[in-house]
Amino acid sequence: MTIQTLPGITSKTITTPRLTTRVLLSGNDTATPVLFLHGNASSATYWEEVMLALPEGFRGIAPDQRGYGDADRAKKIDATRGMGDFADDAIALLDTLGIDKAHVVGHSMGGSVIWRLLSDHPERFLSVTLAAPGSPYGFGGTKDVHGTPNYDDFAGSGGGTVNANFTQLMAAGERGVDNPQASPRIVMNSFYWKPPFKAAREEELLSSLLSEHVGPQEYPGDMTPSANWPNVAPGVYGPANALSPKYTGDVSRIWKISSKPRILWVRGDSDQIVGDQSLFDLGTLGALGAVPGWPGAEVFPSQPMVGQTRAVLENYKANGGAYTEVVLANVGHTPYIEQPEAFNSAFHKHLKA
After folding, report:
1. Which CATH architecture best describes the domain 10-148+250-352?
2. Count of CB atoms situated within 10 Å of the CB of 31
3. Phi, psi values for residue 237, rounded to 5°
4. What is the pTM of this model?
């Protein structure tokens, strides 16, 4: 899918030992690199305005990640590695571009990739910026700030929890508003940002959402039957399964690294996707009666996603790291699009520190 880029953004196809994909670039090739990692149901397109606004002396690099946009469709996501495939792809891209160290920025799932990058390659990053990041403990199926699973098989997370109608409409390239529960345009305008906000480049951002690779080995991926509510557990393919807490590994690795880049965490106070009462979390939906058979808050509460992130960052700080949390008022899941001036003010200060 070809998506028109803004003036000042260059689109290149780059092949690394791991992946061939579209990479958006801004700025001078000799400037300090800033690597941008997009979230789920989006692509590098979401970063263009932020890339163009970078201060003098910085350049932007934003790939379509594996499973998204113009990335090679033959390259699947091994969900059993958690964010491992994404993290290894990012390092391979930096290596191919001859970049030893870079600043890194991640939104939503892109933030989840950064948790893995911090665990595996902390020495490669000058600073970290997390925009509404996924919890370090994954998405769905955990009950406290320590990431304790609700069930041993991690039921209630993974590909089986994704709205099937939504993915079918994505695959069909649906741009209308006929289905109020699943139309990609309605989902984007209802949850990516706080209504009544609408992005100036709505059509390009919708095209970006629709460019995700859809299928049983892609998004949402496969699933495993479970005797535990809601009767589905994670499969082994695709990003939704890769985000399952089943595959996150030892989260304490994040705060045990010896080289600790400074972290900026920016989020909206009205985020309905990554929040302590997320409307995409089955604990929340069960309590609201939207999913029958909910076993109750003792067994399957809402995942405290913000609380989990803060607990990990407090451990990071206690072990010699530093982080700053910025909460933007009346902002949903995409602070850098909803309030670019406020986001960039904090972001640019962080880059220059």
Report:
1. 3-Layer(aba) Sandwich (3.40)
2. 15
3. -125, 155
4. 0.98
